[in-house]
Design a protein that fits this description.
By secondary structure, the protein is of the alpha+beta class. The protein has four helices and twelve strands. The termini are far apart.
Amino acid sequence: MKTNLGDIRTRTQSTTTDLRMNFFDMLGVGDEVEDIDPESLPLEAPLCSVDSISADSRCFAIAERAISFTGEDFDVFLGGQRFSRVRGAMLHLPGKDKMSVWSKDNRKVAVMDRKLVAVTPTYDIYDGNNQKIGWLEKEVIALTDSFSFYTEGSGVGPFKIPPAFRISGDFIDRKFVMKSTSGKIVARVKKDGIFQFDAFNHYQVQVSSGMDAYLVIAIACAIDEEFDEEHKERERKAEEKEKGEGFPFFS
């Protein structure tokens, strides 16, 4: 079921003032995002029927929780109010990250499930009814790090159709953009240098009007966790190398 932009404008009219007063909007995240027609979204329906899509662009703050039993917990704010939360699974296999996105009225709207066996780091993405809607994968052939989101049924291997969205940018500094197949920038993500703390991350996420905000939030959190996993792996290898060099062979 597709979403009508007129209905969205009616639903969001009462919150327009709050959106315009969003402190993070005033800080800005660089260049503007580009409005899109929600009818052009590749998903059959928004991940949340209430507030996935807005008639206005929105700027969210995603904060990694300082105290977390999973290390994969985030709170998402809009206009100073909590908009959503992302929670990691308490029990999972090493390297098998699983996170759920919840709406402010406590409904599960998306699940990101990292595949244990894959050619490249891949997260399957499900809606709140546990129906797979697509997957996010890190590109193996690229001059720089980049990710692609494919909708379910896009095919496999060399027979895949082009991705619905591409994500590229400076992932070391956590500053990247999300583009549609037509090349429109539908989201911008950057680490927040003003409210950054060593113990946990803050992001500013700008989402265009007509774009599914929960999908952007899910993808941003999955990418953050992927680079955290890579960082942990580099640290593990460095420690192993250090231990190996600490016991020289004596003949």
